[in-house]
Amino acid sequence: MAETEMISNSENNEQFFEGVEKLIEIWFTPAKNADLRKITRQQWESVLKIVRCEIISFTQSEQVDAYVLSESSMFVSRRRWILKTCGTTTPLRCVRAVLSLARDVAGHARVHNVFYSRREFARPAAQLQPHDNFDSEVKLLDSFFGDGRAYIMGPEKDCWYLYTLLPLAGTVDALEKEQRDAGSGCGASEPDQTIEILMSDLDPAVMDIFTRAYSADAAQATKESGIDKIIPGMVIDDFLFDPCGYSMNGVAKDGCYMTIHITPERSCSYVSFESNVPVSSYDEVIARVLEAFRPAKFVLTVFATPDSPAAETPRQLKKFSSLGAYEQKDAQYCQFSGYELHYALYAKFPS
Ligand SMILES: C[S@+](CC[C@H](N)C(=O)[O-])C[C@H]1O[C@@H](n2cnc3c(N)ncnc32)[C@H](O)[C@@H]1O
């Protein structure tokens, strides 16, 4: 298994695990016969060695290959690659190898868009280069993609970092990019949306479900926690770690995915939820996620393109100063040339 850094907490004999993930998503410009799924499992295994993690399970739909990893997940479709890894993994170190495989094996020579994001780590000093600070991550990303933009949202300790290639709407850069994409004659844009809920300080009674002492297997943990009801109709590939920890990928017939990762240790409990399911309102999904995990605090991000069914959600969410039992502590709204983004930090109202 991966070289995961576990640090002992002498007070309760629990180990520290950095649940916070680094998330990179690369979209390639459509090209005839190009498909990232031409990259073989063996080639992905060598890529993931650079990241310091391994494949532990696999499932697929017609549109997407979904891998559960020793540290989170990877999704591969025709022109989109998503890698989400936690602990002390080093996902940005593999980008060069992925770009080479995309060009030489999959036939994808042009990058259309890139998103790299993460929450602030619980222990930033334990991370390996370039992940020990955002400036180094941005420097490395710029060395691959040239014209990136970096954003830091929210208060220092709970901030959320984003790097993307998208120029701001209305700027000369944006117009030039739109013209380049239109000129490629292959419809580089398509409706897209992503919701992420990054939760910390979770209800210990819920976290117990994701231990071997409580659940006999992953299927039991999935059912008992209500994960199977969050977005019904997904084929679920779940994994329960020993002695604790849980990861799952869900894929739907229409190509949508969801992914949940759980670090249940009390001193560092953390859960992430992500999906690209296209709905006109995320209210129900958010409510089900919060009901299932009961975090004390969470970061919510929603990206949507103007042609997505979820196009209104970044603006809708902007209006809420509270969400059920949660008070909005901070919120930011951004408009890129192809996406709208809502970021918000919520904490439970004091009881
Ligand atoms: C891979 S999972 C999910 C991490 C995820 N990013 C999250 O949202 O918390 C991490 C959990 O599994 C546990 N675990 C047990 N064995 C592990 C292993 N060999 N590699 C990684 N995590 C392991 C960790 O202690 C932690 O509770």
Report on this structure.
- The chain is an alpha+beta fold and 351 residues long.
- The protein has helices spanning 41-51, 95-104, 134-145, 172-183, 204-208, 218-225, 227-230, 283-293, 313-318; strands spanning 7-9, 14-16, 22-28, 55-60, 64-69, 72-77, 80-85, 111-119, 149-153, 160-164, 193-202, 235-240, 246-251, 257-263, 270-275, 295-304, 322-323, 326-335, 340-348.
- Helices cover 23% and strands 35% of the residues.
- It starts with 6 loop residues before the first strand and ends with a strand.
- 44% of the residues are buried.
- It catalyses: S-adenosyl-L-methionine + H(+) = S-adenosyl 3-(methylsulfanyl)propylamine + CO2.
- Substrate binds at residues 17, 71, 241, 265.
- Its cofactor is pyruvate.
- The record marks 71-72 as: Cleavage (non-hydrolytic).
- Pathway: Amine and polyamine biosynthesis; S-adenosylmethioninamine biosynthesis; S-adenosylmethioninamine from S-adenosyl-L-methionine: step 1/1.
Identify the notable features of this structure and list them briefly.
about 350 residues, alpha+beta, eight-stranded antiparallel β-sheet, 9 helices, globular, binds S-adenosylmethionine
